[in-house]
Amino acid sequence: MKYVLVSGGVISGVGKGIIASSTGLLLKTRGLKVTMIKIDPYMNIDAGTMAPTEHGECFVLDDGGETDLDLGNYERYLNITLSRDHNITTGKIYQHVIDRERRGDYLGKTVQIVPHLTDALQEWFMRVARLHVDETKAQPDVCVIELGGTVGDIENAPFVEALRQLRRKAGAGNFLHIHVSMIPVINEEQKTKPTQQTIKDVRSAGLNPDLIACRCKDRLMASTIDKVAMFCQVETEQVVAVHDVPSTYHVPMVLEKQGLITSLTKILNLDKLEIPSKLKLRGATTWEMWKSSTSVQHHSQIVTIALVGKYTSFADSYISVIKALEHSAMFCRRKLNLVMVDSSHLEEDDGNTSSIESQKAWEILRKADGILVPGGFGTRGTEGMIVATRYARINKVPFLGVCLGMQIAVIEYARTICKIPGASSKEFDDQAIDPVIIFMPEVDSKSMGATMRLGMRPTHFQPGTGWSQMRGMYRNSPVAASRDTSDGLVIHERHRHRFEVNPAYVPKLASNGLNFVGKDDQGERMEVLELKDHPWFVGVQFHPEYLTKVLEPSRPYLGFFAASAGCLKEVMEKLQSDKGVVEN
Ligand SMILES: *[C@@H]1O[C@H](CO)[C@@H](O)[C@H](O)[C@H]1NC(C)=O
Ligand SMILES: *[C@@H]1O[C@H](CO)[C@@H](O)[C@H](O)[C@H]1NC(C)=O
Ligand SMILES: *[C@@H]1O[C@H](CO)[C@@H](O)[C@H](O)[C@H]1NC(C)=O
């Protein structure tokens, strides 16, 4: 096993995560199997309980692990599947050591940070690095470890010590350390002092970076690079300049231009590894696909998608949704123009008599090529979402409702078409006369408690749904692990919700034309709804955005986006003709 450590200094938020994922991607383009671990020096054990406003989006893994956006980034860049163990926190490792102490594993010895905690950390890294991360089930060749926080913090000292020891254990040629620093520009001068200082800190902690990645808003001047090299006692080749680029998808190309592949090959002795031939998909290698998909298209058609939600000022809460749309736009070679509409401004139906804010919101909505209602909790703004959904349904504007968004579509349909004016969700109104959405917990056999439905679950497309555009989109989807069995198409997506369509109302909804084309394996939970005679009107109870990949956009999003762009037919044809071919 080879390890790449990515640490950071000066200040946090300099883009360590993107550099770590991009390094992983470059290793992958060499044909290596890459996995990633994130170290978060927090005391928390689970991100699920943290407020989205404080923490950004909660990202869900196959195993139901709730983490934050970094693991999502790794999965999307590298097209891999991680588990909750790929995120290690101070809280998790302390709990692990304390549990062992309680069980008497340490034979009554005094348990200390060094060696007990640091040993436990190394064991964790070595165990988790070996876990397979894709369908080939093969052990990865390289593990990229991103150390959160900045080196020198009190918080990450035990991790730094464990990594120092891991480096020794792995041996020469098996460990590479990239330290990410920042070069501020003051009065047009690129300042290297903070970098010199952080390198000093890292060295005094016992680590010695092989590469210093310097983040800077501009391109680094040759004299700056020389200065960093001289004052930090490294060769100029060891200084990697990473200037700001218009899109984070371009960072791998910036790193490649800096010769990172050569450095990786040399320091990690990659020439000595047996590397299998590269997989070609759609006639191109991963790297060729990456470069062409992410290249800037100046003249491409602009597609406007309105995201109708709450927390609209916190784009962070919808990161995966936004990524899924970006990936879809790249696939369709269109430019995404994402506009956020606060649903509470849509509550007055006509928008003629109402406030300026409401008029503006309606104007944006009317101009959109597609309308998306994402997931969320609570009642605020839900009436506005219902109105937006009705607008999309009646005016044949492509629509995607995700989780809460699907439930909104059901409520709207029940009220308008099925003539059930009191239709609502138990989540918004505990006393609802016609609760078309109810609390449907999953019974957890371990804790014997009712829990949130969390993680990967199958969805079965129902017999007689051959007409379904969603079904068409899912055929051959490698990421959602779709299988065409004798009894139809089965797909797998990640869930995170408590409320669902009330089965008691399904017959009435269905007989009025709301088609539940996908259900769970018991046929009790409604997973996918779709309208006929509409360019694209789809609701999904799961969160397909958690599985989107840069080069494999989530299929429901891709279908929705393509319908909004007017190229759904071409996209479907392209997907059907796709086959992975092995390059010789
Ligand atoms: C890892 O877990 C901790 C605690 O649950 C959480 O705060 C952190 O955001 C998670 N990190 C990642 C990368 O998911
Ligand atoms: C609101 O204005 C639009 C366009 O000006 C018009 O078509 C619509 O009928 C108006 N609605 C009401 C309720 O007056
Ligand atoms: C992504 O991974 C899946 C499953 O491991 C694989 O079938 C697919 O071809 C990969 N896609 C790309 C673009 O590498």
UniProtKB/TrEMBL annotation:
Catalytic activity annotation: UTP + L-glutamine + ATP + H2O = CTP + L-glutamate + ADP + phosphate + 2 H(+)
SUPFAM superfamilies for the chain: Class I glutamine amidotransferase-like, P-loop containing nucleoside triphosphate hydrolases
Presence of keyword Nucleotide-binding: yes
Ligase keyword on record: yes
Its EC number(s): 6.3.4.2
Domain CTP synthase N-terminal: 2-270
CDD domains: CTPS_N, GATase1_CTP_Synthase
Boundaries of every Glutamine amidotransferase domain copy: 315-550
Gene Ontology cellular component list: cytoophidium; cytoplasm
Keywords assigned: ATP-binding, Glutamine amidotransferase, Ligase, Nucleotide-binding, Pyrimidine biosynthesis
Annotated pathway: Pyrimidine metabolism; CTP biosynthesis via de novo pathway; CTP from UDP: step 2/2
GO biological process: 'de novo' CTP biosynthetic process; pyrimidine nucleobase biosynthetic process
Alphabetical list of InterPro entries matching this protein: Class_I_gatase-like, CTP_synthase, CTP_synthase_N, GATASE, GATase1_CTP_Synthase, P-loop_NTPase
GO molecular function: ATP binding; CTP synthase activity; identical protein binding
Pfam family membership, one: GATase
Top-rank taxon, per record: Eukaryota
Family: Belongs to the CTP synthase family.
Its biological purpose: Catalyzes the ATP-dependent amination of UTP to CTP with either L-glutamine or ammonia as the source of nitrogen.
Name of the protein in question: CTP synthase
The gene coding this protein: URA7_1
